[in-house]
Amino acid sequence: MNINIRLETPADYHAVEEITREAFWSFWEPDTKICSEHLLVHRLRSVESFVPELDFVAEGDGKIVGHIIYTKSKIVDDDGVEYETLTFGPLTVAPERQSMGIGKMLMQHSFDEAQRLGYRAVLIFGHPDYYPRVGFQRAAEFGITPTVGNVRDPFMAYPLYKGALDGIHGRYFIDPVYEQLAEADVLKFDKRFPPKEPFFPAPISILLDKLEEQPRKALEDTGCVSLEMMTSISEREVSSLPGMDANSVEIIRSTLRSHGMRWGE
Questions:
Q1: Rounded to an integer, what distance in angstroms lies between the CA atom of residue 140 and that of residue 236?
Q2: Which CATH architecture has domain 3-179?
Q3: Which residues, at least 6 apart from 211, have a Cβ–Cβ distance to it below 8 Å?
Q4: Distances in Å between the alpha carbon of 110 and those of 52, 56, 99, 211?
Q5: Listed residue (131, 140, 157) closest to 231, CA to CA
Q6: 151 close to 125: Cβ distance less than 8 angstroms
Q7: Cβ(235)–Cβ(264) under 8 Å?
């Protein structure tokens, strides 16, 4: 299938929101009723931080099969100096077109354009074992921390040119729109789309029951409540947990794989 990457147009909006809904129709928390990413995409297009020059769709066989959207973000150092950066997300690939390299194509195309436009770097919160394959590094390596919470492997940075983040450190800020997705608003917005069966995440007990006492306790202490949530913890982080050995790591990997989730490696 030939893939054409082009800028999104208003005529694409509903189709993009629909494939975003399909791609993210899985949840980490057992009490989550619905995904919110399709509403997020809808709102991102109207915020001041939105970067329309980096709003791309991937088209294949006359259909939209992928989408990437960017907003401006910033790093603020201890002296209050601000450094403009970018963040993307959601990065969407239609479920039936995943594992075909479309996401990587969208990233590389948009990275090239972002560099041409003069941007410094891209920072994201994403799958900690996937994004390093396209060049992302842990943000902690640059001395960049999230606004709240601890620095963990899912927080990553991609310098758009050599030395782009040299000497820059501080806290990272993104548009508040990412945190303003009330469930009532999502449920109302979702009525624009066909009904879907609810999704129920796989309980973490499926994995815990296979582990010895020490690694099981260490994994329980991470707070993961589902197998889906495990994809937010890198193999590096899990391997460093107390009592975690190579056999336990392989059990985690194979268990997630058997439930259709790629983890590690």
A1: 14
A2: 3-Layer(aba) Sandwich (3.40)
A3: 219, 248, 251, 252
A4: 11, 8, 19, 42
A5: 131
A6: no
A7: yes
Q: Using 50, 70 and 90 to split pLDDT, how confident is the model at 33?
A: confident
In angstroms, rounded to a whole number, what is the distance separating the alpha carbons of residues 219 and 211? 9
Q: Is the peptide bond before 90 cis (omega within 30 degrees of 0)?
A: yes
DSSP state of 89: E
SS3 72: strand
β-strand partners of 83: 75
pLDDT in tens, 100-145: 999 999 999 999 999 999 999 999 999 898 999 999 999 999 999 9
**Residues recorded for the chain:** 265
| Cα→Cα distances 39→87, 169, 244, Å | 17, 32, 39
Decide if pLDDT at 84 tops 70: yes
- Helices 13-23, 37-44: axis angle to 10 degrees equals 150
Cα within 13 Å of Cα(130), Cβ side: 15
- How many Å apart are CA 160 and CA 167, to the nearest integer? 15
Where do the domains of the chain lie? 3-179, 205-258
Task: List the structure tokens of 174.
Answer: 């993104």
Q: Which of 15, 109, 132, 121 is nearest to 65 (CA)?
A: 15
Closest CA to 93 of 83, 82, 102: 102
What span, in angstroms and rounded, lies between the C-alpha atoms of 91 and 55? 11
3-state helix, strand, coil in the chain (%, to 5): 35, 20, 40
